[in-house]
Specification:
Length: 351
C-alpha cells in the first residue's frame, strides 16, 4: 500500500525509506531577529514545516525507522517518550497514515506539571491518532524503557502480530539519522542557491540523532561548517560522547570510516539548566521574541531552548566572528499548549 522510496542520496540507497514529509522545507532569513545581533545574520531551516501532524524533525527520522519496519512486514509499532513527546505524536500520526497499530509508552520525566501538561499538546494528539498508551516510571534509563516496551511487543508477538520497536537506546543503529544526512544535502543545496556561505549551524541535541545525522551528512558532502548541538536533554559532558558514538555507527553503516572526529563534535549546554522540559524566564523571553519579531513559534522544551542557546551566546559575545548562522528549527510547537501555565506564569488571564 505504501511504497518504499529510495533516498536521493546514493550512499543511503540500500536503506528502506517510506515517504512521510514535505520537502524541501524552507530556508528563510529572519531579518528582525537578526537585527538584534547585528552583524550576525540568522537564517532558519524550517523543519517545523515537514508537514505530517504539525511537522518537526521526527518526520525525517521516522521515514527510515518505519521504512525498515515495513520492510520487515511489521503490523504494529512501539516506542517510548516523555508525556509531551513530539516523537510519540509523530510516530502515532505516521502509524495511522501507514495503517499500523501503534503502542506508546509514556515516561513522566518532568515532575510537578499541571493537568494541562498531562492532557493537552502532544499528549492529546497522540491519543487523537488512536495510539494505545501506557505509562512507565521516570528516568534516564533508556535501556529500562526499551525493555518494558519490548515486553509489550512480546505480548503482541504471542498474539501472532509482527511488532517493530523504534528504540531509544543510544547503542542501537541510528537509522533515523539517515533522514538528517538527506537534510544536510537539502540544506547545502539551498544555501548554495541563496549564496549564503554559513559559518555556523545550530540544532537542538536530545537523543542526538538529528545533530549526528546533520554533522555526518555535511562531512560526507565534504563541507566543514561547524555544527553546534544545543543540549536539551542532558549536559554537554554526557551529550558529546553520545554524538560521536552515533557518528561512529553511521560510519559503519555507510562505510565511511573516520568521517567525524571527537574535536568536530560541538555541544553547548548554555541554555539547558535547570533540566529537561523545564523552561526558565529566559526561554520564555526567547519564545516571545521569536513570536513578536518573526511570527515564529518555538517551543519551551526543544526549539525554544535551542534558539536561546544561540541567541544567549550571541548576546554574551560568546560566538565572536560568526556572521552567518543557520538555526535548524526542529518543531515541537504543540508543546506550547501544554506549557501554557509556564508561558503565562504570574499573569491573570484576560477575558
Ligand atoms: C522538537 C524537537 N526538537 C529537537 C529534538 C531533539 O532531536 P534529537 O532527539 O534527534 O536529538 C526533539 C526530540 O525529541 C524534538 O522533539
Amino acid at each position: 500500500m505504501h511504497e518504499l522510496v529510495p533516498s536521493g542520496v546514493s550512499e543511503l540507497s540500500g536503506f528502506p525509506r517510506v515517504a512521510l514529509g514535505h520537502y524541501p522545507t524552507p530556508l528563510e532569513f529572519a531579518p528582525r531577529l537578526s537585527g538584534l545581533y547585528s552583524p550576525c545574520r540568522i537564517h532558519i531551516k524550517r523543519d517545523d514545516c515537514t508537514g505530517l501532524a504539525f511537522g518537526g524533525n521526527k518526520v525525517r527520522q521516522l521515514e527510515y525507522y518505519l521504512g525498515h519496519a515495513l520492510s520487515t512486514g511489521c503490523d504494529a509499532v512501539l516506542s517510548t517518550g516523555a508525556v509531551q513527546s513530539n516523537y510519540m505524536r509523530t510516530l502515532a500520526a505516521a502509524a495511522s497514515k501507514l495503517g499500523l497499530e501503534c503502542h506508546i509508552q509514556l515516561e513522566d520525566r518532568v515532575s510537578g506539571k499541571s493537568d494541562l501538561y498531562h492532557r493537552s499538546g502532544n499528549r492529546m494528539l497522540t491519543e487523537l491518532f488512536g495510539a494505545h498508551i501506557t505509562y512507565c516510571p521516570d528516568g534516564e534509563d533508556e535501556e529500562g524503557a526499551d525493555r518494558m516496551v519490548r515486553e509489550i511487543a512480546g505480548k503482541l508477538e504471542a498474539d501472532g502480530r509482527k511488532p517493530y520497536v523504534v528504540p531509544l537506546k543510544p547503542t542501537r543503529r541510528p537509522l533515523g539519522a539517515l533522514g538528517y544526512i538527506e537534510a544536510a544535502r537539502e540544506l547545502q543545496d539551498q544555501w548554495t542557491d541563496q549564496e549564503l556561505g554559513p559559518d555556523l549551524i545550530v540544532v537542538g541535541s536530545g537523543s542526538g540523532i538529528t545533530h549526528a545525522g546533520l554533522l555526518f551528512g555535511l562531512r560526507l558532502l565534504g563541507c566543514d561548517v561547524p555544527v553546534m548541538g544545543a543540549c536539551v536533554r542532558r549536559n554537554a559532558e554526557l551529550q558529546g560522547p553520545r554524538i560521536l558514538s552515533h557518528c561512529d555507527r553511521l560510519s559503519e553503516m555507510i562505510g565511511a570510516p573516520g568521517l567525524v572526529r571527537a574535536d568536530d563534535v560541538w555541544v553547548s549546554d548554555h541554555s539547558f539548566a535547570p533540566g529537561y522540559g523545564q523552561p526558565t524566564e529566559r526561554i520564555r523571553n526567547t519564545i516571545g521574541t521569536a513570536a513578536h519579531l518573526e511570527g515564529l513559534l518555538v517551543d519551551p522544551v526543544y526549539s525554544g531552548k535551542a534558539l536561546a542557546c544561540l541567541t544567549g551566546q550571541l548576546e554574551e559575545g560568546l560566538l565572536p566572528g560568526y556572521q552567518s548562522v543557520i538555526f535548524v528549527h526542529t518543531g515541537g510547537t504543540p508543546a506550547l499548549f501544554a506549557y501554557q501555565d509556564d508561558m503565562f506564569a504570574g499573569t491573570e488571564p484576560r477575558r
